[in-house]
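User: Just a sanity check before I run the rest of the batch. Below are the structure tokens for the first item. I only need the designed sequence back.
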């Protein structure tokens, strides 16, 4: 039930529903129409960007489960992406393992490694845990670059085009449906996770882990479970990146990538599944738009075009600072304010 002063529910089913008002269903329908129509109207460049957004959404949701919903800071998710990518690429390119099986194994391996590096969370939290996960980033990146027997060292691994149920994925158009199909399932799974007892335990640990322990929640167990779920989703994003780009190299899994994903969930909104989607979209579209602008002015303003990489870094940092200063709850909160304004208009309260 929606009134002029808010949204109220008279049953538990209504309170737990994913979409609570008619306006929510209308917006969901419009989003579905946009998602279905996008590959038919986007240019090749922006279709590639759309696919990158889909993969980023999967990874951002995974990181937000850990950092936004459980309160555990991680700076190692760029390396966990690499674990998923390298595992799947090696299985397919060297052992001729079917793509789907390789992706499943990559997710399992990333889950195990992510959980292992999550063990410090049993005794550490805050900046101390961030430093422990930063160590994981450097350890795994060192392995990618120097474990020649397994990863090939600094040489790139070439991955063949994947074939799923007899369907060869070569074009961005074909990949679009696979990537966004998986992204939608991940978003729905995450939304439902936080309607369950596991999700509520994560929130209790985030709000106050000592109080959660007093309430009977096994804090250590749920922290490791959060690392496992987060790492699994990030490993899935890494495996899909490997098969989508068909080339795996350590340079794509540096600390910069970990910071980028952290920026996604900060800009989108910590502790919000929808915020992960908004942040991944925003932080992927903005650099792409800058690149496109640089290409357009390459002939007319060559000096500006040459400085675009530096401008991109400046914009990246400025966006994070501005959101932390003026909207620390991210784009999700901004969208909530807009919806509240129109629902309550003309009454400002």
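Assistant: Here's the designed sequence for the first item:
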């Amino acid at each position: 039930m929606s009134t002029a002063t808010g949204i109220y529910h008279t049953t538990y089913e209504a309170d737990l529903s994913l979409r609570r008002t008619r306006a929510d269903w209308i917006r969901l329908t419009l989003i579905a129409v946009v998602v279905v129509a996008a590959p038919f109207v986007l240019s090749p460049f922006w279709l590639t960007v759309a696919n990158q957004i889909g993969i980023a959404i999967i990874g951002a949701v995974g990181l937000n489960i850990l950092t936004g919903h459980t309160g555990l800071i991680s700076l190692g998710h760029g390396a966990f992406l690499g674990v998923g990518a390298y595992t799947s690429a090696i299985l397919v390119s060297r052992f001729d393992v079917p793509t789907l099986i390789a992706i499943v194994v990559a997710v399992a391996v990333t889950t195990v490694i992510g959980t292992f590096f999550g063990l410090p969370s049993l005794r550490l939290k805050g900046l101390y845990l961030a430093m422990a996960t930063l160590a994981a980033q450097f350890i795994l990146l060192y392995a990618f670059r120097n474990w020649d027997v397994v990863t090939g060292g600094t040489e790139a691994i070439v991955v063949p085009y994947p074939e799923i149920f007899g369907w060869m994925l070569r074009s961005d158009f074909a990949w679009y449906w696979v990537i966004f199909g998986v992204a939608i399932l991940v978003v729905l799974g995450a939304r439902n996770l936080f309607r369950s007892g596991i999700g509520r335990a994560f929130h209790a640990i985030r709000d106050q882990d000592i109080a959660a322990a007093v309430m009977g929640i096994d804090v250590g167990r749920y922290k490791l479970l959060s690392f496992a779920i987060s790492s699994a989703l990030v490993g899935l994003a890494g495996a899909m990146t490997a098969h989508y780009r068909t080339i795996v190299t350590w340079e794509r899994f540096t600390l910069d990538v970990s910071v980028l994903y952290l920026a996604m969930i900060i800009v989108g909104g910590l502790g919000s599944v929808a915020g992960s989607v908004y942040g991944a979209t925003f932080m992927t579209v903005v650099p792409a738009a800058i690149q496109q602008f640089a290409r357009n002015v390459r002939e007319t303003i060559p000096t500006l075009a040459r400085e675009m990489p530096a401008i991109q870094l400046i914009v990246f940092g400025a966006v994070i600072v501005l959101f932390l200063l003026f909207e620390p709850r991210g784009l999700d909160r901004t969208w909530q304010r807009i919806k509240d304004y129109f629902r309550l208009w003309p009454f400002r309260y």
